[in-house]
Design brief:
- It is a single chain.
- This protein is α+β, with helices and mostly antiparallel strands.
- It has one domain: Porin (Beta Barrel).
- A hairpin with a 3-residue loop joins strand 8 and strand 9.
- The longest helix has 13 residues.
- About 8% of the residues have low confidence.
Length: 247
């Protein structure tokens, strides 16, 4: 947990993307990737990208814009030799920048995002549907939102496609929004180069669940800060973010 906290604080303070995307995985991947450890790399990669699916359950109601950055630090599986060789602490940092817009007259928000992976970037997009707004039917009913995203990455060492789906609930209390949710990540990776025991073109597909607990702090109804604890396939991650909402 101390390593996660240190990595998370470093990720935020040392210019989100500059810290997280320095270096590359090319040498580590080519020299270490095998049929045994590649599934764990795919699991951790997919869950790290999926961890940015949501940092609240509320969406923009009507025409508006929501932009921000997230920084997560995931403690990867000890069997993920690619990450553990690249970073001795085994922590996978993942910065994400996002922009969402509301759809007039519909409880729907659509958006795009870019996530950093060493020297490379995954591009994605998706939508959120708010099924229930807090207090609309009964005072004690929470916000309930569904979300889905697709992300893709295609570079010289491998390419992958990532699909995720989420269900989120939250309660708003004054300037706080307490949220929790569950999601599932399905990630397919195709290697473009040879590994230690496989040839270029080798594919791995992994699907794993993900669970979130977090809080959003609203400041002046425009600026907000978020923090989350995320648990995925036996590993933990911490996430912090800052965003601005225009409506």
């Amino acid at each position: 947990m101390k390593k996660l906290l240190f990595s998370l604080v470093s990720l935020i303070l040392v210019s989100q993307f500059a810290y997280a995307v320095s270096g590359d995985y090319d040498d580590d991947y080519e020299q270490i990737a095998s049929k045994a450890n590649l599934p764990y790399f795919v699991q951790d990669l997919g869950s790290s990208i999926g961890s940015s699916d949501f940092n609240k359950a509320t969406i923009i109601q009507g025409l508006g814009l929501d932009v921000g950055v997230l920084a997560s630090a995931q403690k990867t599986s000890s069997k993920n030799a690619i990450i553990h060789n690249y970073r001795s602490d085994g922590v996978l940092p993942m910065p994400t920048a996002y922009a969402n817009i509301g759809i007039p007259y519909l409880p729907i928000e659509i958006g795009g995002r870019i996530s950093g992976l060493a020297d490379y970037y995954a591009i994605g997009g998706g939508a959120k549907l708010q099924l229930l707004k807090q207090g609309r039917l009964l005072p004690f009913l929470p916000n309930i939102t569904l979300a889905g995203y697709y992300d893709t990455f295609d570079e010289k060492i491998f390419k992958f496609d990532h699909l995720s789906a989420d269900a989120i609930i939250s309660y708003e209390i004054l300037f706080l929004e307490l949220f929790g949710g569950a999601g599932v990540d399905k990630t397919e990776l195709e290697s473009k180069i040879d590994g230690t025991d496989f040839s270029a073109g080798y594919k791995v597909t992994e699907q794993e669940p993900r669970y979130h607990l977090g809080v959003k702090l609203e400041i002046l109804k425009i600026l907000y800060l978020t923090g989350s604890y995320i648990h995925m396939h036996g590993n933990d991650a911490l996430q912090a973010g800052i965003g601005i909402r225009f409506k």
